[in-house]
Description:
- The structure is a single chain.
- By secondary structure, this protein is an alpha+beta fold.
- The protein has 8 helices and 22 strands.
- The chain has helices spanning 2-10, 22-31, 52-64, 77-83, 88-104, 121-130, 143-153, 336-354; strands at residues 12-18, 36-42, 45-51, 68-75, 110-114, 157-165, 168-175, 189-193, 197-206, 208-209, 216-217, 222-225, 227-229, 239-241, 245-261, 263-281, 284-287, 298-308, 314-333, 360-370, 374-386, 388-392.
- A 5-stranded antiparallel sheet has the order 11-9-15-21-20, with helices on one face. Strands 2-3-1-4 form a 4-stranded antiparallel sheet.
Amino acid sequence: MLTKLWNILRGYVIINILGFSVEKVINEATKNGLTLWNVRRDNRGFALNISIADFKRIVPLAKNFGCKVKIIDRAGLPFILYKHRKRKALGIGLVLAVFGIYALSSFIWLIEIEGNNRVNTGYIIDFLKENGMYVGALRRNNQNILEHLLINNFEDISWVNISVVGTRVQVELTETIEEAPSIDFSVPADIVAAKDGIILSIATAAGTPKVRPGDVVARGDVLVSSRLNLALVDEEPEYYYVRAISEVWARMHYSMQFEVPLLFYEKSFTGRSKTVYNIIINDVELPISFRRNIFENYEVVRNETRLSFGVNYPMPLVLVTEEHREYTMVTMERSLDGAMFFGNSMIDSYILEHFDPAVQILSQEIFFAEGLQVLEVEVVLVTVERIDEVYMLDFESDVNISS
């Protein structure tokens, strides 16, 4: 990016080199330190870009090999200023704009975080800001220090790489392997029912089972007690308390009713639209075009484009384009078959949203009944799922704890 900007500032010409020894001319020019770029073959020989100073050196060099040099075009600030030499205000404004862009390229305008799942992105951004790296800060070579600070201050981060390229900062990190939650066996706990159901199976590793397959339980009922009777026959009971461990599966019944309207409203786009523009400067959005809404009903399609000079030189300006698309509400009618299909789709969506993937659905009965401009739907689900839930005990007096 800086090289390209420098070439524009000092000016360059686009030339054709014609002859039978063009390759030799290019090789010799490179050996002599001439800077050539965008070299490509065309029908008449080779075309390339070269600075004004190096152009004066390549002409005699080409003649030595029997080749000719022809100027195709001129580009860069010197030629633009010469062309508009009588328009001094334009020239001054152009120079200020170029140097303004160059000055902006000395700051950080975009910070990207990649690889974090558990560590909140906002926490990382705030930490970097506290240590001198934030949007609007001058670029500094303190990446290594920040990498060590991140690892030392965030337990969930095991590796960090911070790269500053242009005005863009990319933070790549790897998180530590998440530890399995530890179980405190010194605290007694019962296993209780998380839901109402009919017990199908119970496998207990610790504690005293209180239910058997076939029992009907309600939410909160104790399934496995933490209390153990360790006394022998004819001895006075002596109780110990443990953390109960068990896996309990039960059959569950669910019933739900809802209605699918046969008449409904739907958006119908008219084809008319209006585009308005905003600009975001450091998270502050400002309007730059007339915003009067000419439609009663409209949908907004928003697009944000960050202004940049290449991938690695984003600027602190974001152009916002909002397309306001007019629509009218049109009354639509569903057939009974269409309403049934829609009802089935709603049931599938409900199951995906509210049921764990481990839940096994044994049966699904759906009943339809036509009402007044609606289709009444009733669903009965029978499932098999785990209902064991840990309930920690809190004793006011001392008890014997067995681990």
